[in-house]
Every structure is written in structure tokens, then in C-alpha cells.
Write a structure and sequence with these properties.
This protein is an all-alpha fold. It contains eleven helices and no strands.
């Protein structure tokens, strides 16, 4: 039976997710000494795209037109599996950690085949890179979630995060730190952030995610932009309950602390993108394999 309070766990990210992108851009502008765009700019961009009409190439089929919508639907369904601090997820069951990984993979798959449907070799290049990097990041996220499942003694995200408290850090602190490191590397990769990808670049030889969505416009591109914000929220929501396992038994306080933790992750991303350059493409696989090593080491430490 669905708890009415759990609906909040979906409504909060649906409304707040684009704000994470605004915080990242604002932090980067502040560090660079610029005024920067308004923190609500992502909302303005999405609204502007929704009011435009889509333009479709004659070479595309129904796959291209439905790809962005199916991708967004998969991400929104994934949100229903994510708890909001002390509030359990809207949908939770034993093994939902695996469904979350598959839903993220489905969203990526639809974006990739939509890019391939255009018949552009340029977008095919970006799709190839996206699939290659995702093949390296998926083992890392699976191992990280399995490590959390072992520590939380459950296979449902809501139960896992409910069982992780500040005391857990005294017993499994090393493993939790490694898990956070692995999940953060995955966050940077899955959301096309520096040092894996640069969401603001338009240099043909280095684009990955952006090159796959060049032919999208209007509401289709709005769905992709909004889906990217929701995906960033999902990845951040896997880190915050582990990094800040605070349970005050006050619903409002716990939700506020959880949202502040989400904003903190966005600020850290902004600091990273302001302080380092993008890695060479040949180094990115090593970076992602490193996340798998961190997650595997965390599992080993749990059993020691």
C-alpha cells in the first residue's frame, strides 16, 4: 500500500531537480569572478523549449520521436524507488536496487538509439563513447549498491538508508567512505560532468553526451534537459543518505537536512569543474575502473 507521505519523495525532485544545475553553474560563475546566470535559469530554459516546436530530420523515424519521452519516463520511474531522507520511496521492494540500475540503463539506451536513428556519423561517435563508458561504470554502481545492501542488511533502498546511521560510520567507516568515492565517480560519469565530459563544450572531438542530442529540439530537448536534471538528482540521492545519515525523528528537519545535502553535492560538483580540466579520453576508462576498484575494496573490508 502506498504511503501518502511517500508521494513527497517524488514531488520534491520533480520540482527541485533543475535547481541542482543552477547551483552548479552559479558556483562556477562565482569562482570565475563572474555574475553568472540566474540560479533558476534551468527552469527558464526548459519552459522556453516547451513553447517551441520540434524539428525532425527526414532520415529519422518514430524511434527518434519517442526516444526522449521513454528516457524521461524511465528516469521518473527510477525516482519512485528513491527515498527522500526519512520518507520511504513511493515504490519499494526487495531487489529494487537492481531495477534502478536497469531503468537508468534503459534511459541511456533510448538516448543512444535516438542518436543512431539520425544516421549521423558524428552522433554515432558520441553514442559509441557513451556506451563504452557506461559499460565501465555499471559494474561500479552495482558493486557499490551491493556493498550498501550488505551494510544495511537489506536489498531495498528505503530499508538500506533507514538502517545506516551515524553509528554505522564507527564500524564500517572505511567501507562507507570507499562507497561514497565510487558513487561520486559514477555521478560525474553518468551525468557527463568534468572530468569525464564537459556539458558546456561544443568541440566536436571531445563531445560525448551533447553530441547525441544535437538533433533534438523544442519539447524533445526539454525532456532531455529535464531528464538530465532528474538523473543528477538520483545519483546524488544515493550519496547523501550515506554521507549524512542523520535521523532526528523530526520529519521536517530530516527533509531539510537531506535537501541541503543534495545542494552540497551540487556545490562540490561546481568546485570540481572550476578547479580541474577534463581528462583525456584515454584516461577516462582508468578513472571509471578506479570506481569499480573502490567499490570492490569496500566489499572486501565489509567481510574482514
Amino acid at each position: 500500500m502506498i504511503n501518502l507521505e511517500s508521494i513527497i519523495s517524488v514531488l520534491i525532485p520533480l520540482v527541485t531537480a533543475p535547481l541542482l544545475l543552477g547551483i552548479i553553474n552559479r558556483v562556477k560563475a562565482t569562482i570565475a569572478g563572474r555574475e553568472g546566470q540566474p540560479i533558476l535559469q534551468p527552469y527558464y530554459d526548459i519552459w522556453k523549449l516547451l513553447r517551441k516546436s520540434a524539428v525532425y530530420s527526414k532520415t529519422t523515424s518514430w524511434i527518434f520521436r519517442l526516444g526522449s519521452l521513454i528516457s524521461l519516463a524511465a528516469i521518473i520511474l527510477g525516482l519512485t524507488l528513491i527515498p527522500a531522507g526519512p520518507i520511504p520511496a513511493l515504490i519499494g521492494f526487495k531487489g529494487d536496487i537492481f531495477l534502478l540500475v536497469y531503468l537508468i540503463g534503459l534511459a541511456r539506451f533510448m538516448t543512444v538509439i535516438s542518436a543512431l536513428d539520425t544516421g549521423s556519423s558524428f552522433e554515432g561517435m558520441g553514442s559509441s563513447r557513451e556506451v563504452f563508458f557506461s559499460a565501465l561504470s555499471e559494474p561500479a554502481i552495482l558493486l557499490a549498491l551491493l556493498a550498501l545492501a550488505k551494510i544495511g542488511d537489506a536489498y531495498s533502498l528505503s530499508a538500506i538508508f533507514a538502517n545506516i546511521s551515524a553509528e554505522t560510520w564507527f564500524y564500517k567507516g572505511a567501507s562507507l567512505a570507499l562507497i561514497i568515492g565510487a558513487l561520486f565517480v559514477i555521478l560525474l560519469s553518468e551525468n557527463s560532468r568534468i572530468p569525464v565530459d564537459d556539458p558546456n563544450t561544443h568541440l566536436e572531438l571531445t563531445m560525448i553526451h551533447e553530441v547525441m542530442v544535437l538533433d533534438h529540439s523544442g519539447p524533445d530537448f526539454a525532456a532531455i534537459t529535464y531528464g538530465s536534471a532528474l538523473k543528477l538528482w538520483i545519483n546524488s540521492a544515493l550519496i547523501v543518505p550515506v554521507l549524512l545519515p542523520i535521523h532526528t525523528n523530526n520529519l521536517s528537519t530530516d527533509i531539510l537536512l537531506w535537501i541541503c545535502g543534495m545542494f552540497l553535492i551540487a556545490m562540490v560538483i561546481g568546485l570540481i569543474e572550476s578547479s580541474m580540466a577534463r581528462l583525456r579520453l584515454t584516461v577516462v576508462p582508468q578513472f571509471l575502473v578506479g570506481a569499480t576498484v573502490l567499490a570492490a575494496t569496500a566489499i572486501i573490508l565489509i567481510y574482514i
